[in-house]
């Protein structure tokens, strides 16, 4: 039997995965068995985003999200709701909303309805996702434009009201990098100074092979924990395709929709090894700070499920996770599991 990540790190932190619709619907019992053996928390990869939950103004579709709640109950997995307020994957009707009143109505009703429905059913919410630019300033979005900077604090206040016992997180990528981290810290302090509760910060952790910013990650763990917050790695994966597969001619490739597979014979040995070393270094760091880190979630169960197969272009063959396309452990898995606590 393949060793279990959730068991190996039981004394350190929870181990989560993103789940897609097919996995939530348990189309494949062997896949369910594999998932529940490895992970004790789940984040919906897409099914709790606003476009899916509220396809038409005021009309909600909770079908798959409810199934996820059942899945969590049945398999004793805690659910992290993802995500209430995000500028992306918004309902298409939001493209036609151009007034402060309407944006505010959407914002308020969406949070109240969704957080209210899953009160006591999700363990936590990514209340606000990706509100910052790389330089630490607020990202332009429909929420910033019409509601102003305070929309972030307001989102936390409304979620807390609708679902008082749920942990509330701010989630972003690259927020381990100094400038963005400074912006993130300022945002968190603003929420706290308003007397509104925030329980944790998610560092997504979409990194590149051979380029893991270990120093910045460690500084971030310490600085976020200093604010009294739980620190989580919420969407971990390590991109392995060469830089030029997402470089200069990206626009041309976006329109050509070319299938790209630089490694038709599988991941080369040296890259496989570097991936393993990177995951090992990361988990060593996570374990060093296990008193501050409550969860490490992978963004997908195995390489076949990863969003990185379809970004920045569709149809790539990527290898960013610990398990291959047949759920077989990769060298990276064995390096990580050897660190067992
Ligand atoms: O479901 C439709 C399908 O009906 C349609 O035929 C197909 C063709 O376009 O698209 C399908 O929807 C796609 C969806 O994933 C489900 O596969 C969307 O186009 C695609 O945009 C969407 O991508 C998701 C992406 O967020 C959207 O921004 C990825 O799966 C998901 O992994 C990714 O997750 C985000 C986190 O939420 C936030 N942090 C970054 C992370 C990676 O981008």
UniProtKB/TrEMBL annotation:
Its EC number is 3.2.1.8. It is an enzyme of class 3 (hydrolase). Residues 1-339 form the GH10 domain. InterPro entries: GH, GH10, GH10_AS, GH10_dom. GO terms for molecular function: endo-1,4-beta-xylanase activity. It holds the Pfam family Glyco_hydro_10. The keyword Hydrolase applies. Keywords: Carbohydrate metabolism, Glycosidase, Hydrolase, Polysaccharide degradation, Signal. It catalyses: Endohydrolysis of (1->4)-beta-D-xylosidic linkages in xylans. The active site is at residue 235. Belongs to the glycosyl hydrolase 10 (cellulase F) family. This is Beta-xylanase. It comes from Emticicia aquatica. The gene is xylI.
